[in-house]
């Protein structure tokens, strides 16, 4: 299993998704060669689906890596979504900047260098979508900022929330991952128990949680 679903299931689901072309294919190959973690194929397809249906004008991403998911979301929006993405790793920052500018996307994808929490504390803009894909052990700390920055109808997509199944089953927990697992469980409780929010946890890839605000009549 490369995620939380059985391999036969994820292999089948992936077989239904078209192969990427052009820049996204190149970036996938680079990520594979250089061992850079980027969204799994079905998660990339899910982001594409969300961007196509929700049409977010402004997206905030935590965790740029080489810029793959930022570029994917911008392309999925036909270039209409503006993305702000945060990354702390200098090597990743330099590769992502090159990828973004080589494809003429500097005006659409803004990379902010730094620790997510420190950057989030300073941001004042509002976003229609937040994609959390950095610092698995800190989603619970990022959440209050993400909610503050999220427009009323906005949506938060958090990746890796089941963390190789460890979040769902104590039997799978590796001892050195206990803190991450506890904090991720705390994140899932916060977004699931808050009466103002509605969250759907999907066992896709490494687990995704999609959160939005409830309607006022509920
Ligand atoms: C899974 S990768 C992001 C992949 C990217 N979203 C994609 O799918 O193309 C996570 C990235 O977040 C960065 N990161 C991890 N913790 C961070 C933090 N606290 N602040 C900023 N960046 C962080 C890592 O350096 C890494 O490049």
TrEMBL record:
What's the protein name?
tRNA 5-hydroxyuridine methyltransferase
Upper lineage is:
Bacteria, Bacillati, Bacillota, Clostridia, Eubacteriales
Cite the Gene3D superfamilies for this sequence: Vaccinia Virus protein VP39 (3.40.50.150)
Check the record and name the Pfam families matching this protein. Answer: Methyltransf_3
Q: What is its EC number?
A: 2.1.1.-
Its top-level enzyme class, in one word, is: transferase
Report residues binding S-adenosyl-L-methionine.
39, 69, 87, 133
Binding-site residues for Mg(2+), renumbered to this chain: 133, 159-160
Family from the record: Belongs to the class I-like SAM-binding methyltransferase superfamily. Cation-dependent O-methyltransferase family.
Its gene is: trmR
Q: Which reaction does it catalyse?
A: 5-hydroxyuridine(34) in tRNA + S-adenosyl-L-methionine = 5-methoxyuridine(34) in tRNA + S-adenosyl-L-homocysteine + H(+)
Quaternary structure, per UniProt, is:
Homodimer.
Q: Which InterPro entries does the record cross-reference, listed alphabetically? A: Cation-dep_OMT (IPR050362), SAM-dependent_MTases_sf (IPR029063), SAM_O-MeTrfase (IPR002935), TrmR_methyltr (IPR043675)
Per its database record, what is this protein's job?
Catalyzes the methylation of 5-hydroxyuridine (ho5U) to form 5-methoxyuridine (mo5U) at position 34 in tRNAs.
Asked whether the keyword S-adenosyl-L-methionine is assigned, the reply is yes
Per UniProt, which keywords does this protein have?
Magnesium, Metal-binding, Methyltransferase, S-adenosyl-L-methionine, Transferase, tRNA processing
